[in-house]
Amino acid sequence: MKSVNELEHVFENTIDNWLVALHQDSKALWGNMDAQQMIEHLIIALNVSTGKRVIELVTPIDKVDKIKNIGLLSDRPLQRDFKNVALPLDPIPHMQVDIATAIEELKKELKLFKNHYTLHPNIKHMHNVFGELGYHEWLWMHYKHFIHHFTQFGVLTPTDRIE
User: Angle 142-139-63 (CA atoms, 0-180°, nearest 5)?
Assistant: First the structure.
């Protein structure tokens, strides 16, 4: 797992380069979300990590540590076509008027995420699969999640995945 400083560097200096490659008509290589829905999906995940959206754990408590170690804390990329039981099977309708507005909202939520953990460095928020996560774990989760979806839309290649 990358250090906090390495992960913060990616979010502060690299994400913008990925975002400029996305357009309203960008096509997914798999899955059924369009590019704007994907950006809004990332916003929802950021909202969970700051406690704006509260979700319940669906993983049996006796399996959380094992699933967290294998699925999150390892360098293993997130699984393609993973179905998160907290999400509907069909993509959520657009929340913003266009992808540019969604991207600006994502940037805003990234800043709020950083600020939230600056003000509350020891706080933890529930991830429905991996249990309670602190700042470093959420950074890693978002890093893996962003790489997964930017690979889904061809902005990154599979070799760009987890280093």
Answer: 80
Q: Tokens for 152?
A: 């889904």
Closest CA to 8 of 120, 142, 100: 142
Segment 33-72, tens digit of pLDDT: 999 999 999 999 999 999 999 999 999 999 999 999 999 9
pTM tops 0.70: yes
Q: Which residues contact 155 (CB under 8 A, 6 or more apart)?
A: 18, 21, 22, 26
In angstroms, the CA 80 to CA 97 distance is: 28
